[in-house]
Design brief:
The protein has 459 residues and is mainly β. It has 3 helices and 33 strands.
């Protein structure tokens, strides 16, 4: 199945010019750089120096814990600036894509978009150089990928949406972003109708799944539909459950070797629940396999919680995530690793319990993570969350630093009766490209900000 889109008007109200049969191009208004001061965060208190690298004039966020917001040269940092916080995102409101020059201490808005959320911001990603940024926008009522040329200020829009970008910048993949809020707020775009996320029906199942857009031809193709996922579920009871109910896709992630895609698969019963499991496939959709079953994912930990946050290991062969491996005799949430086909399952640390958003460096010597406010079994100063660093060679843990992420409502993600997760802020610590720095979110003064910890003297 294929689809094409004709883009006529952009989010910023500019007319688009057709430069190929389907790709649109337009110029973004001239930008102005603003100077600001990068400030030390509680100097001398922590294991390593930490700086607040965003201005105090608004609400900022980097993207996610597996998307490096530092440019390939590491001179620039890309962030989202929200129009507000403590309020449900509204269809039509705009957030800003901002580039920070860490050397000159300047910030500039390079694009404004209607496609944003409080967990991923504008889901903006660098290409393979400091020249291009990729994000989404709402054009003609549909989420589509936008490429920002920082040199020429040219903007290109494509026919499909982006959840992740291939390392060679040749294609993007994404589930349907309009339905993502129905199973978890904060990772896609605002609801078209306030408080009423788009939902799938049984009639949508054969025509929905994971979409892939070729950025050269601008052809968007259904790479894997829901029935293809069903066919790869080996446990009969689980397959029957998924076939009976309404399916959705969550995180879609391409490994850095550009050989595999990891896909979180979900189902809802009466528009409730998640019931996740995990799949991988080749980038052409072949060799689809379920690597973590629904039963394995949803085991409950002794101190609360179930499996969460799968992430590609830098080797492109393994996946790192929090699991509760009861089938191996464990009762707690642990940092785990397994191969793309589910084999080679191992516990990365039996001593340190799993929390937050885990990732490892290239040679698997260090594991980085954070924690949630309710995970009281991880020590941290009162009112703050830890940025955790575990030496996997010695199995010793150090706290890089700690920070508050409370943006109001005492860490409860939303107010009763309201929709969305607009009070939620996760640190989402992410490695720099050389694994010498860590970028994370925080709000020690109640305002969303972005921080960088320098680990060069430690790792």
């Amino acid at each position: 199945m294929k689809r094409r889109s004709f883009i006529g008007r952009t989010s910023v109200g500019l007319g688009a010019v057709l430069i190929s049969p389907v790709i649109m191009s337009f110029q973004y208004p001239k930008r102005a750089k603003k100077g600001f001061k990068i400030k030390a965060y509680k100097p001398g208190r922590f294991l390593s120096p930490v700086q607040c690298v965003t201005p105090d004039d608004g609400f900022y966020l980097h993207t996610f814990y597996d998307v490096c917001p530092l440019s390939p040269s590491q001179r620039y940092l890309v962030v989202t600036k929200f129009p507000y916080q403590q309020k449900t995102p509204m269809w039509g409101d705009e957030s800003e894509v901002c580039v920070i020059d860490l050397h000159n201490e300047t910030i500039e808005t390079v694009y404004k978009t209607k496609a944003w959320s409080f967990q991923l911001g504008t889901n903006v990603q660098w290409g393979s150089t400091d020249r291009y940024l990729y994000t989404n926008d709402i054009i003609d009522g549909k989420p589509v990928c936008i490429r920002i040329d920082l040199h020429s200020e040219e903007i290109k829009s494509y026919s499909g949406a982006k959840y992740d970008l291939s390392p060679d910048e040749r294609y993007i993949v994404s589930p349907n972003l309009l339905t993502m809020n129905t199973h978890q707020y904060g990772y896609a775009v605002p609801d078209r109708i306030y408080g009423r996320p788009d939902v799938f029906t049984k009639d949508d199942m054969p025509n929905e799944g994971l979409w892939k857009t070729d950025l050269e031809s601008n052809e968007t193709t259904l790479l894997a539909d829901f029935s293809q996922f069903h066919d790869k579920v080996e446990e009969q009871d689980e397959r029957a459950f998924y076939e009976k109910n309404i399916n959705y896709l969550f995180h879609s992630k391409i490994n850095r070797q550009n050989t595999k895609i990891m896909q979180v698969f979900r189902a809802q019963v009466n528009n409730k629940g998640r019931e996740a499991s995990l799949f991988t496939m080749d980038t052409d959709g072949k060799n689809l396999i379920q690597c973590l079953t629904r039963n394995q994912w949803n085991q409950q930990a002794r101190f609360g919680g179930a499996g969460n946050h799968p992430n590609w290991h830098p080797d492109g062969e393994h996946i790192v995530m929090n699991c509760v491996p009861t089938w191996l005799g464990y009762k707690d949430m642990l940092f785990c690793q397994f191969k793309f086909d589910g084999s080679d399952f191992r516990i990365l640390s039996e001593q340190h319990l799993g929390t937050g958003h885990p990732s490892v460096n290239a040679d698997s010597t260090y594991l980085l993570s954070d924690a949630y406010p309710h995970q009281k079994y991880i020590p941290s100063p009162k009112g703050e969350l830890p940025i955790r660093l575990i030496d996997l060679k010695t199995d010793q843990e150090q706290m890089i630093c700690s920070i508050s992420t409370d943006v109001g409502n005492n860490w409860v993600r939303s107010v009763k009766g309201e929709t969305g997760s607009h009070y939620k802020l996760d640190p989402h610590p992410v490695w720099s490209r050389d694994y010498k720095k860590v970028v994370f979110n925080g709000s020690p003064e109640g305002r969303r900000q972005v921080y960088i910890a320098d680990l060069s003297s430690i790792v």
